[in-house]
Structures are given as C-alpha cells and as structure tokens.
Amino acid sequence: MAKEFAARTVKRERKMTDITANIDEKILRIHDQKLLRGAQLDHIALKDIVVRDQVRTKFNDESLQELALNIKENGLIQPLVIHREGNKFVLICGERRFRAMNLIPFETAPCFILENKTAEELMAIQFSENQAREDLHYIDQADSIFGYQKLTGASERKITAALGISKSEVHRCLQIAKLPKEIKEAAKEYNTEKYVLLEWHELPKSELRDEIRSKILNGEMTKRLQLKRQLSANNYAKERKLPVANMDHLMKEMKSQMKDPKFQAKAKAMMKQLIKETTLQ
Asked: Which of 15, 63, 155, 162 has its CA at a distance of 20 to 30 angstroms from the CA of residue 2?
C-alpha cells in the first residue's frame, strides 16, 4: 500500500513557530549585541551540546532543582549560547540552565548559535554574560579574567576596555587568580570576602601570616573585620605608602625649587659637607 502524504501547503500559508515569541526583549539585550551579531536562534538537542570549562565552577544543587522546576513550568526564558565547531555545538553560556534542563529532562533547548568566533571573542561573551549575574563568585570572575589575559596577552588597560570593568577591579582579580589553589577553594566554600585574601597576601612572611592562612583554610576567618581585629590584636601596623598623586606633586615641587639659584647653592653646600663628613670617617 502506497504511503499517503499530506497535501502540500503554499509557503505563504504555512504556519511558522517563532521560538523568540515568549522571550523578553530585555533578556535578549543582556547579551553583547556586537559579539552576538549574526547569531542564529534555533532549537538544539541537549545531547548534541558539548560542555567544556566554563567561567562558573560553583553550583548549588538545591538552586539547580528550583531552576529545573521553574523551567518545567515556564519554559526556558533565556536561550543558551553555543558555538558551532564542525559537527559539534560547544556550550559558551548557560551551563547552570543546561544542567537544570537535564534534570527534568528536556530534549531540546532554544540556543543562540555562534559561528567562526575566535577563542578571545568567545571568552569575552562568556565573561559578559556571567558578569551580569549577581551570584557569580568573585573567584570564578578572577580566574576567567586571568584566563583571558593568558589567552590574549592583553594588558590590564586592554582587558578593561575589552570586558568593560574598571582597571582597579581587573588588577584585584589578577591578584586573586594567582593566589594558591587551596586558598581560592576555601574562599568559595566558606564565602570568604575577597579583601581578606588580598590583604592576607600583602602580609610579610611570618607566623602571623601562617596563622591567618590556617584560619582562612578552615573557614574561621571569612570577614575583613575579623582580619583587622586579628592584626590589631597582634599590634600589626601596615606600612603606608605615599599615594602616587602626592609623589608626583612632590617631584614637581623639587624640580621647581632646583631652578632657584639660592636653593642650588644650599644643595651644593650640603653635598660638600656630606662628602667631608664621609671622608673623615
């Protein structure tokens, strides 16, 4: 018996499914439009998406379950971002959503499909998307910026321009990223404030520094205030450096004074006296 086919429908009469219909435009604007320019929006099978190292490394099982229930009830509001590499789709942004959808499980997900992007562009997209989320841990942020620097060889100034964050924050992130692995893991486990790590790192090698390190690793010191109290109890006074702006002003004043003949004469007399006293010794 011959197989029967449905009658052909004229193209203009076909019903098209718009997968962006239920997506809030504000959500779409979260992504960097310049970097996502040319991306195709389509449904992709979750089994065809490959997950590699992501910016985010800390996931809460309970929150993933909550997200999974939310997606099950309301659908995925914000698409995943993937990059086509040959016959594979590599996940760039949305690992938390991806994990939650696999718990339900869903078979497909709406995705922004990128093509022909450089590793530098993909990392910038990844960072930009995660930076917009308040729950991204500062350790993950620091490691991603350090990874971006290693990949591109960019200076702090260029990283600031590329990722849209302040130079001081870039500098702090690079400092944090270079801290010992066990310190960073403890900071994520106990939600230690980042300034505890930064100020501990500046301490000179001593028993006090080792003691504070142990407390950080054990989760006994998570707040900057605790660190300050510890330093105060040990009569530790941090050496204060003259701000760069004040130093520049001082140098300008000295150069200005050197042009004065009277000042030059006094300086010469002082130098002669200093040489004389050194010779006599």
From this structure: 15
